[in-house]
Each structure stands twice: as structure tokens, then as C-alpha cells.
Amino acid sequence: MRTMTVGNGTDDEVIVMPTLLESLSAIKSISCSNRCSLALTKEGNVFVWGCEPGDVQKYYKLPTLISIANVKAIAPSITNIYFLTNDGLIYFCGNSTRKMIGTDSQGRIAKDK
């Protein structure tokens, strides 16, 4: 099962020389986990390539826009992505089967017992 990609639309596993990702511009920061790579634009938009956290069936060979805006910072983990907005709010997506994102496996807020 493939979980990562170099983001150039190919199945290349290794690229020796630094290569421009032509589909991205005006990037503020990048971040990676072992399954996906993320790019945050200066406008606050986020692109992902590789596997979508929590769903290894969704695989992006090219940077794909995520449906969230006004993002200030991004932090991917193995199974989740966290987004900090300019308003100081935290959003997340991914797998919560082990309650790692503060919700139970159905997405409800987890409460300590």
C-alpha cells in the first residue's frame, strides 16, 4: 500500500535533484508526516499530497486544495492534521479511533471518565 508521493503527479519514489513543484506558488510554509505533505499558502489556504490522514484509500499524486481557509499554521501527525486559524481556532481532520483528536470514533467530543 502506497502512502506517500513526491507531489509531481508521478509514481516516482525517489527524486535526487531538487525539483520545483510547479503546481504550487506563494507558499508560506510546508510540513510533512510519514503519510502526507502539506503546503500553507500566504493567503491561508492548505494543499495536501500523499495519503489523506485517517484514510489511506484517498491518495493524491498532486497537491490538492483542502476545504479550509484563513489558516495560520499546520501540523500533521501520522493519522491527523491540525489547523490553526488566524482567529485562534483549532480545526482537525483524520482518524480518531484512539481518541487522539479529542473525539470518539464517531466524531463526538470525548469526555474523561
Tally the helices: 0
* Separation, N- and C-terminal Cα atoms: 37 Å
Helix content: under 10%
- Count the E strands: 7
How confident is the prediction overall: mean pLDDT? Answer: 77
Broad CATH class of the domain at 27-94:
Mainly Beta
Largest sheet: 4 strands, antiparallel
**CATH architecture verdict of the domain at 27-94:** Beta Barrel
What is the C-alpha radius of gyration, as a whole number of Å? 15 Å
Q: Per CATH, what is the topology of the domain at 27-94?
A: Thrombin, subunit H
Q: Strand-residue fraction?
A: 35-45%
Shape: globular
Order of helices and strands: EEEEEEE
List the uncertain runs: 108-113
Side by side, the strands of the main sheet go 1-2-3-4
Structural class: mainly beta
Based on the model shown, name its key terms.
0% helix; globular; 113 residues; 3-stranded antiparallel beta sheet; mainly beta; 4-stranded antiparallel beta sheet; Thrombin, subunit H
